[in-house]
Write the structure tokens for this entry.
Amino acid sequence: MTREELARETAGRTGLTIREVQSVIVTFLDVIRETLCRGESVFLRGFGSFSTKKGSARRVRDPRNDGIMVIPARFRPVFRPYPLLRDAVQNSLAPRTRVAFFCIGYPDAKSVSITGSFNSWDETGSLMQKLPDGSWFAELVMSSGQAISYSFMVDGVRRQDPAYPSGTTGVSKRQV
């Protein structure tokens, strides 16, 4: 996405003109650049931080005379995304896979749900279906390659998955 495309998209979402948005973008980037040039950092909550980092001096081969030359240390800008941005990018671009969860041993329970790191520990977000044999089942679509922490909520009480125990915390861990 170019700066112009970004301005056009932002203008469409905010109702501002493209020219106004372009002015804001240019000013925004100027402020970040000026702040970094003073050696300070810029923190954008929920997005990431911009800062500077000093690299180390290094020795390399001099192509003119086959000797060694020293490249002095340089400062460079660094961007570190915050977990919210990192997770959003991962969740939207990673391959998806279906993950089956079975909860066995609670045939008399009235409701069972699965809660975990994948749904912000929402106790009502992923209800499980009761099977004829008394076990509970849920199939969720998740990003491949992630490690998840989860537990079952059986009638409002947190229970660990006996198939994937992980200690006394009541939370199971599993690679998807």
